[in-house]
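Components:
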Amino acid sequence: LQEDRIDEFRAEFLEMHPYDQAKIFEEQTEETRQQIYTYLSPEEIADVMEHIEFEDIELYFSEMDPRFAAQVLADISTDDAVDILNELDINKVASFLTIMDKESAAEIKELLHYEEKTAGSIMTTEYVVIRAEETVRQAMLHLRTEAPDAETIYYIYVVDEEKRLVGVISLRDLIIAEDDWLISEVMSDRVLSVSVGDDQEEVARMMRDYDFLAMPVVDFKQHMLGIITVDDVMDVMEEEASDDYSKLAGVSDVDNRDDTAFASAKKRLPWLVILLFLGLMTASLISRFEDTLNEVAILAIFIPLIAGMAGNTGTQALAVAVRSIATGEHGKGGLAKLVAREAGTGLINGVICGIIITGIVYFWQGDIFLGILVGISILSTLIVATLAGATVPLVMHKFNIDPAVASGPFITTINDIISILIYFGVATAFLNLHLLITS
Amino acid sequence: LQEDRIDEFRAEFLEMHPYDQAKIFEEQTEETRQQIYTYLSPEEIADVMEHIEFEDIELYFSEMDPRFAAQVLADISTDDAVDILNELDINKVASFLTIMDKESAAEIKELLHYEEKTAGSIMTTEYVVIRAEETVRQAMLHLRTEAPDAETIYYIYVVDEEKRLVGVISLRDLIIAEDDWLISEVMSDRVLSVSVGDDQEEVARMMRDYDFLAMPVVDFKQHMLGIITVDDVMDVMEEEASDDYSKLAGVSDVDNRDDTAFASAKKRLPWLVILLFLGLMTASLISRFEDTLNEVAILAIFIPLIAGMAGNTGTQALAVAVRSIATGEHGKGGLAKLVAREAGTGLINGVICGIIITGIVYFWQGDIFLGILVGISILSTLIVATLAGATVPLVMHKFNIDPAVASGPFITTINDIISILIYFGVATAFLNLHLLITS
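Structure:
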């Protein structure tokens, strides 16, 4: 495709799916990309850009001629155009919007208002609406003209004279219907919609539960503002899953295909440094029990076991809580029920693990009081750590604090500290009661 | 809806979306459910059953009259029917399949063959095919008749006389096309398909990347076997995200909305017991360094810090590796590149954290050698733990071992052990060199 065989290149390239076009495009040198910009129309480039990885998008738009770039943006479906603009420098966005044709610029500007992660931010304004008084034949004609531009034509939304959403009809039903029936007779007036400020996760959940391919977005007066299509929802699901996952792992961002060691270290370092300082707190805590330790050095050997169990059980509880927030299931039954359940879970697992460890330590070290000490510590630790893991993120969510702090490593370290306090507290009490044989 | 006002109940209930019907149905007592079975036709119940939670499905099918149940199953779309049958007792499945009409039973039996988590297991056989020689008009007529039964009519697949997949046309393109054009003129012959044995995650990835609403499934000779629709793919994405997440957290299954404390404890206990025993290994390891500990009790206070850092960095590396396996990105560049990157990441973070901790410990405890000891331990630990976290799951994946063992808590505990070996190893060496002041 190097030489000046433009026609051949175009024929071959345009035959491909835009996703494949984007993959090929990304592999080219800047020189070849410049050639491609001249070979293809803004509309054709727009298709490619919709499938480019976000990391590279800024580069491509900077190297295009600004007029060309503005036209590409105008040809991209509005929701994707907004996503791209969000990646660009604010000055560049302003300059693109001035060069662009007025209509597209207005549409994009409107969408740029909506807050990130809301229904408004992922919706598109390219959808098909009809009126209830039209006939099926008129609707089909309408569809034919709008089909090339609309994001989906498989749901047609019915609005009244004030653009309020009153019904929906699927293309499937439209095709089965007789030509001269009225839309009002065939449409469903039980149309589900989401509000423009709704959380994108909530939208994704609804579309998955109801198996919708698209969902209308309305304002608080039921005026239709846009639609959200299933392909955007799949991206949301992927993004949210990845977010939850990164949070549990304590990485700022887990998706780093081609990162260098340096970039990768940068993503993980912040947490590690925080944890280093939290770890120092643990160390200074233990140092307060130095007397106890000097007297019974054997106590030290169970520190990692107890801290580890606290960390693990806390992470388990955290994971369950975060997922139940993510899938919107935490509402049912409320916080009190959850706390009761987690306390119960901690108690059951604590009793079982406590009994096992008491037995093992007794047979291993021949000291029943040491066994009971470790057993009691495990029991108390498991109850407290389970509760902490589950309630911290839920309480934060309830008060609308972003539970970023509820990351796995953070909960783990908090539980480390709690468990060590419990362990040495119990041990000191035992020593004061002269129960432990000094080893 | 109690009384005998069947008509009113039917009118109200059938107006609702099947998902809402299912939610209401699940809240009823057995008595009311029995009434509902008599009020609704098997086909109407089938819609409800497609949206029921899997946990309850066995109960409902057991309480229905077997003939009725078999007919409900026959009316459910085949892919969902297979999912339901996979939940039921094998004898019950056999008896349902004998009562059912032959055609539906044959379709279901065929799908039951496919292994779980493959394309075959999530596909449906209710799709629309046409021949390339037909005209657009014929195709539309065809569509109208098949629309009520097909899982989707928005993609129509074109096959040759041997049922080999040769093309695809979207309903959108079909609507725009002139009535007397031939399908062969308007179809796209670059049709992407998946193989029946492909991993469902791979299918989900493709559909997300290409923004498809449905994807054809073929055998190794390109014969069309079924289609996979986007709603099933969303369920797959949710399921896989949940799997990865549970694995990182060390819970057998994280989705437990209405679990009792007992059920919840059962899901988490297996890991806790395994970890208890691994923790005992750590304890017995430290006990071998009892002499060192007796000499320098202060060493004990840094155990949780070092083990914690090892655990956290290992979990970070694990998370990145598991996600890159899940998103299929680990192929690029290969294992060697990844190992090099993770070693680099560990080194960079190790050096930074090591220097910080050396300084702090020196100022806190006034012992430069203790500072250096902890610093060196952190450095070595971070390198080794990062490498372990990243390579264990990748190596397992490479050898096609299910990386269930690569769970977060497991990696954490392994890294605990490694870090303690390093720490006490270095400490013992320092002691032999008489570098440490005994506190």
